[in-house]
Amino acid sequence: MTKMTRRLLLAATASLPLMAGSAWAEGLITIIVNDPANPYWFTEGEVAKATAEELGYTANVAAHKGDTNTESTLIDTAITNKSVAIILDPANADGSIGAVRKAVDAGIPVLTVNAEINESDLAKAQLVSNNAQGAALGAQAWVEAVGDSGQYVELFGAPPDNNAATRSNGFETVLSQYPDLEEVDEEVANWDRTQGYQKMQSMLQANPDIIGVISGNDEMALGAIAALKEAGKLEQIKVGGFDGSPDAVEAVKAGELQYTVLQPVAVFADEAVRQADNFIKTGETGADAEKQLFDCILITKDNADQITSPFVLEQ
């Protein structure tokens, strides 16, 4: 996470109008993200918090860091604190169901963002990026960068998160159309930059002739770039990312990353809170469906300068 990311987000929060007295009496909205050390999840939490406060709620942001036990404890705290709604980025598609049910049984509406749980009609809404669409965009841009033949490797996200498989399958949908492109290795790096660096080192040692790396998120891609730079291989091996993080956008501008796929996290984090507000006041979110997909945007050198603030593209 860059200092600029934090400054922009804190400035955006500080610019919201302060509400006095009873204007803050709408209740507490608890926001639970994965790990705010990642700029994507930091943005998710800060935007949701700012929107909740704009609407007259108090809000706090907590992080489970992918651990379902921590997530369950945070849900217990939200219940104890009499939260009027919970905005949750689930730790695990299956493992988070019990925690969500616990909140719902306590009468607290839960809206999930970024990742899903594998049960319908429990969360009031599930707002996620259109990962399949974004992965197809990225894979096509990746082919344009590396060509239509050669060996490549893939960095895979955290397996308990459905987004990891959805993106990988989306890549495969496109790459399978190019029979002379051969995937020779795939490693799980759990959305993490350090793991991306370490896994890239080992894959490069085992597969010195690869032409490209396709990655399930920017943090893993940035780790791979660091390893390739260290090995003097970045010019020959092209890397693609996914998220649209500030560091990735800068890497695109520098020519180190071929593209990133912008997830509109600022949009759906804001929208989740607004739907929670609707539900609190009317018993309905106002959306047509529980699961809502938000299309991703391909970021290349051609439009990287249009990123006006973290994860927001000026149209």
The largest pleated sheet is described as: 6 strands, parallel
CATH homologous superfamily title of the largest domain: Response regulator
Spatial sequence of strands, sheet with the most strands: 2-1-3-4-5-11
Which consecutive residue ranges, at least 5 long each, have pLDDT under 50?
1-25
Structural class: alpha/beta
* CATH uppermost class of the largest domain: Alpha Beta
Helix content: 40-55%
* Proper CATH architecture of the largest domain: 3-Layer(aba) Sandwich
Kindly state the number of beta strands. 14
Number of domains: 2
CATH topology of the largest domain: Rossmann fold
Order of helices and strands: HEHEHEHEEHEHEHEHEHEHEEEE
Taken as a percent bin, the fraction of beta residues is 15-25%
- In round numbers, the mean pLDDT is 92
Summarize, please.
By secondary structure, this protein is α/β, with parallel strands linked by helices.
Can you tell me about this structure?
It is found in: Cell envelope. GO terms for molecular function: carbohydrate binding. Its main location: other. By secondary structure, the protein is of the alpha/beta class. It folds into two domains: 155 residues, Response regulator (Rossmann fold); 132 residues, Rossmann fold. The protein has ten helices and 14 strands. Strands 2-1-3-4-5-11 form a six-stranded parallel beta sheet, with helices on both faces. Strand 1, helix 2 and strand 2 form a beta-alpha-beta unit. Helix 2 packs parallel to helix 10 and helix 3 runs parallel beside helix 4. The longest helix is centred in the last third of the chain and has 18 residues. The chain is elongated, with a radius of gyration of 20 Å.
